[in-house]
Amino acid sequence: MTRHNPWKQRIKEFFSSWLVSPAELRSYGVLGMNARNIRYIAHYNDRTRYPVVDDKFKTKLAARKANIPVPELLATMDSQAGRKALLHTIEQCEKFVIKPARGSGGKGILVINGRDGDLYVKPSGVRVTTEDVLRHASNILSGLYSLGGKPDRVLVEAMIDFDPALADYSFEGVPDIRIIVFRGFPVMAMLRCSTHASDGKANLHQGAVGVGVDLASGRAIHAVRHGYRVDRHPDTEMPFDKLVVPDWSRVIRLAASCYEMTGLGYLGCDIVLDRKRGPLLLEANARPGLAIQIANGGGLRGRLKMIESLEPEQFEKNVEERVRYSQLIF
Ligand SMILES: Nc1ncnc2c1ncn2[C@@H]1O[C@H](COP(=O)(O)OP(=O)(O)O)[C@@H](O)[C@H]1O
Ligand SMILES: [Mg+2]
After folding, report:
1. Domain containing residue 25: CATH number
2. Strand boundaries in 183-274, DSSP class E
3. CB of 182 within 8 A of CB of 307?
4. Ligand 1: which residue has its CA nearest to atom 2?
5. End-to-end alpha-carbon separation of the chain, Å?
6. If you average pLDDT over residues 229-239, what whole number do you get?
7. For atom 1 of ligand 1, which residue has the closest CA?
8. Are residues 153 and 171 part of one domain?
9. Do 111 and 205 have their domain in common?
10. Residues 197 and 290 reside in one and the same domain
């Protein structure tokens, strides 16, 4: 029995009107799930380094050590005994985000961006009670959203006040920038824009729009939602063709510096742009998804091969040099 592979389905839809075989996909330079897992993740990611990225609390500690700025951590809770302290923290905050330390894909992330008396207001306007928030935290603790269902830790983060230059491109949520970094070289990027459906989260599986971004300039190339091409944001109706990610050179440098921080050869970095603090590392991922290729309308395979073919001394380049090189060749 063959397993349903949503990625192949998307690719079929993307290249619409005809069915594509794996061989044809390879000829487009598209990296598939098996090649990613075997040739890149298993080959270049040292398993002992996974905890640094699989646990967002550990990512924050490692980032602090590496002088990489991250969103402010307001509180953590690792047992039911911490309910009172959690309550105390959220009562003081107008806006905050509660997330599982070991979650992924936007699952279990509760974004609160306002208060209405005793109620907490989500970006969509839906109100939740204190009990709802505490129940959500308990669900996180029990491992409902964690990798492998293991008991987890609750993180409360300050809400990102994102760069106003992106305000028309994201609806009811903070956009983030995903950059794939291979052996320290940025190889592909996309901006992910929240929509009403994605409920304050910029993850594609939650319904956000993925906008491919040119590595050299930070300009939008191509945008997709649920695997289909879109020209405008579905809620704000803003066309993506004029979009340029602000502060692009700092964003891409921050992504490249995550190579030293994590020690992982094949890495996806999620970066947010804070109005005052600039680019911040939201999280890093050792098994980044492949949909970034759809958002860019092009495959990763050729780019990864180019990096693999570099002479050994090229891998001694520092962050600046690696970024300059990537911007030149991709
Ligand atoms: N501190 C925050 N402020 C505002 N939005 C956030 C914050 N943290 C996460 N988000 C939203 O949730 C999305 C997913 O967050 P992330 O930390 O990357 O978790 P996941 O591992 O589930 O992808 C982000 O892209 C962003 O839209
Ligand atoms: Mg993420």
Report:
1. 3.30.470.20
2. 185-193, 209-213, 220-225, 228-229, 266-274
3. yes
4. 159
5. 39
6. 96
7. 159
8. no
9. no
10. yes
Residue 192's alpha-carbon distances to 166, 170, 223, in angstroms, are 11, 8, 9
Same domain, 146 and 182: no
Do both 150 and 91 map to the same domain? Answer: yes
Closest ligand 1 atom to the C-alpha of 175? 27
In 9-88, which ranges are E strands? 73-77
Cα 246 to middle of ligand 1, angstroms: 19
Q: Which ligand is nearest to the CA of 54?
A: 1
At residue 174, the pLDDT reads 96
Q: Is 319 part of a structural domain of the chain?
A: yes
Which region, left, alpha or beta, applies to residue 66 given φ > 0 means left and ψ of -120 to 50 means alpha?
alpha
Domain assignment of residue 94, yes or no: yes
- Number of folded domains that form the chain: 2
**pLDDT for res 98:** 98
The ligand with the least distance to the CA atom of 201 is 1
Does 1 reside within a domain? no
Residue linked to tokens 């002479």: 311
* Residue that finishes a domain, picked among 126, 158, 190: 158
Using CA atoms, how far apart are residues 254 and 147, in angstroms rounded to an integer? 26
Residue-level pLDDT at 247: 96
Give the structural domain span for 80.
73-158
| Ligand 2 center–CA 284 separation, angstroms | 8
pLDDT tier for residue 6 given thresholds of 50, 70 and 90: low
Please compute, for residue 134, the number of CA atoms within 13 A of its CA located in the half-sphere on the CB side: 15
